[in-house]
Design brief:
The structure holds 2 protein chains of 2 kinds. By secondary structure, chain A is mainly alpha-helical. Chain A has a domain at about 5-45. In chain A, about 35% of the residues lie in helices and about 5% in strands. Chain A has helices at about 5-15, 20-40, 75; strands at about 85, 85-90. Chain A has a two-stranded antiparallel sheet. In chain A, strand 1 (about 85) and strand 2 form a beta hairpin. Chain B has a single domain (about 1-489), classed as Amidase signature (AS) domain (Amidase signature (AS) enzymes), CATH 3.90.1300. In chain B, helix 5 runs parallel beside helix 6 and helix 7 (about 215-225) packs antiparallel against helix 15 (about 465-475). The chains are: A mainly alpha, B alpha/beta. The interface between A and B is large, with 51 and 72 residues.
């Protein structure tokens, strides 16, 4: 299969990435090249094979529900683009 | 002095032949002189490095020095280091001064090692040539017209040009082994979960693994001793007993440590696709192993050919999820102008990420989207298991697997930038190891047209000490790993 320009635009929108009209054709060409490579998988019969999500088949560790991290708000917010009174500032979302 | 191994440097420091401040200054001088040509470092901060060196000297004077106390090391700029600019090769993090240390950095700091600087890499570790860095391409010290490999290309070039005695790297699909091969170094990607990922900026979390890049297996073992260890703060860190990775290296040669070693040679590594001049060196290295008493067995990894397809679904899928955190709100790049919140996200990401990163985010978003998840993502994970199962079967027949690290030597800058698929093929022999989570190494095994060739060694889970020993034995009888590029001094 190959992607369409419309699919590229939709995926770009989902990923919050702008693809200009000039870039779209090149991006489509590159993605289709990569998907041609990926398509090789579709011919493989994998019925009954358990998907391998992880390099080690381990379940996630649990820890006791206690505070382990100290508060570093000032250090973390010192590198933020914009903060005020300990909050991160973004453009107004609700009028 | 600068061309010596870590053990020799440690010995010189212990014998008070020189101080850590003097040693660090020697490397800083070399970086100041050579880095403009090689571009291996993104950040150097002499004041910080020398302060650490001075503290290491004080530690030594107090009699509490360990094997890495006062040793300067280059850190891949993917490891967060408190107070250091940590860019991950991206404009997105071009202003990010990390407020905390990665566990790997914390471990090296605790061992008294000195951070010599932060090395260049492909943006977010996505690349095989270092051409995807926002901070410019790294040049291969063996031929500055050529790429150093990637993504840990800055680390590899720094060590190859003797701007650092050793460095850290990370390997998601070959990013330690392939640059090690192309720069004539020894590199080790440990078993997934052995080195903590805490503070190591995430690309594909189920594949990412940190490891050392150095001249010799001996040096890699020394570094891994400090890098490895269980870490509560990494949810996939393995609770594995602490090991001394140098322990097997001590056996004397007359103990014949390689006698009876079974080397598996997968036919998939020795078919078409590999440059003949590379294959010649690989075969010569295997012949040397036979001479040392090892046996070879022909094996097969029938699903390995699918690793490229499986990897280029799984890694971008995980990347698209990991990189969704970069939104211009809490840290990193924020676009100068935007209309509303959505526009702030979109403009910051569009301007902050480079081409290859965006490409992989798009692939990942697509394969995870509604209607495609089963056909792509789950299918890739099923194939991942088939690939891992091939290795399980193979290790019933052999102790170690060998083959080329990369199908070619370092290629020319610009040669593959227009065709992502051609670039991806550079990792054809390394990807399967990450998918399976196994440890792998690359060691120098000669030159083709005056460019280094790397032999890949793949071990079973937790076989790092054994792999290092197998590499070390080869380095006891060859001198490829102690050769340095001419014209770089």
């Amino acid at each position: 299969m190959s992607l369409t320009l419309e699919q590229v635009r939709r995926v770009a929108h989902l990923a919050r990435i702008e693809v200009s009209d000039a870039e779209a054709e090149t991006t489509l060409g590159h993605l289709n090249g990569i998907f041609a490579l990926i398509e090789e998988m579709q011919a493989v019969d994998t019925r009954g094979i358990e998907p391998m999500a992880h390099a080690q088949d381990l379940s996630q560790r649990l820890r006791s529900d206690v505070v382990t991290e100290e508060n570093h708000r000032e250090a973390f917010q010192a590198i933020a683009p914009e903060t005020e009174a300990g909050l991160y500032l973004v453009p107004k979302v609700i009028e | 002095m600068i061309a010596k191994g870590l053990a020799a440097l440690a010995q010189a420091l212990a014998a008070k032949e020189l101080s850590s401040v003097e040693l660090t200054q020697m490397y800083l001088d070399r970086i100041a002189r050579l880095n403009p040509r090689i571009n291996a470092f993104i950040t150097v901060d002499a004041e910080k490095s020398l302060a650490q060196a001075s503290a290491a000297d004080a530690q030594r004077a107090a009699g509490t020095a360990g094997p890495l106390t006062g040793i300067p090391l280059a850190q891949k700029d993917i490891f967060c280091a408190n107070g250091w600019l940590t860019t991950c090769g991206s404009r997105m993090l071009g202003n990010f001064v990390s407020p905390y240390d990665a566990t790997v950095i914390e471990n090296f700091n605790a061992a008294g090692a000195v951070i010599l600087g932060k090395t260049n890499l492909d943006e977010f570790a996505m690349g095989s040539s270092n051409e995807n860095s926002y901070f410019g391409t790294v040049k291969n010290p063996w031929d500055t017209q050529r790429i150093p490999g990637g993504s840990s290309g800055g680390s590899a070039a720094a060590v190859a040009a003797l701007m650092a005695p050793a460095a850290t790297g990370t390997d998601t699909g070959g990013s330690i082994r392939q640059p090690a091969a192309m720069c004539g170094l020894t590199g080790l990607k440990p078993t997934y979960g052995v080195v903590s990922r805490y503070g190591m900026i995430a690309y594909a979390s189920s594949l990412d693994q940190g490891g050392p890049l150095a001249h010799s297996a001996e040096d890699c073992a020394l570094l891994l001793n400090t890098m490895a260890g269980f870490d509560q703060r990494d949810s996939t860190s393995l609770d594995h007993a602490k090991e001394d990775y140098s322990r097997e290296l001590l056996a004397t040669a007359d103990a014949k440590p390689l006698a009876g070693l079974k080397i598996g040679l997968p036919k998939e590594f020795f078919g078409e696709g590999c440059a003949p001049e590379v294959m010649q060196r690989i075969e010569a290295a295997i012949a040397e192993y036979r001479k040392q008493g090892a046996e070879t067995v022909d094996i097969s990894l029938p699903n390995m050919k699918l690793s490229l397809a499986s990897y280029y679904v799984i890694a971008p899928a995980e990347a698209s999820s990991n990189l969704s955190r970069f939104d211009g709100v809490r840290y990193g790049y924020r676009a100068a102008e935007y209309a509303d919140l959505n526009d702030l996200y979109t403009k910051s990401r569009t301007q902050g990420f480079g081409e290859e990163v965006k490409r992989r985010i798009l692939i990942g978003t697509y394969v995870l989207s509604h209607g495609y998840y089963d056909a792509y993502y789950l299918q890739a994970q099923r194939i991942r298991r088939l690939i891992a199962n091939d290795f399980v079967a193979a290790f019933k027949q052999c102790d170690v697997i060998m083959g080329p690290t990369s199908p070619s030597t370092a290629f020319k800058i610009g040669e593959k930038t227009d065709d992502p698929v051609q670039m991806y093929l550079s990792d054809i022999y390394t990807l399967a190891v990450n998918l399976a989570g196994l440890p792998g190494m690359s060691i120098p095994c000669g030159f083709a047209d005056e460019l280094p060739v790397g032999l890949q060694l793949i071990g079973n889970y937790f076989a790092e000490a054994k792999l290092l020993n197998i590499a070390h034995r080869y380095q006891q009888v060859t001198d490829w790993h102690v050769q340095h590029p001419a014209g770089i001094d």
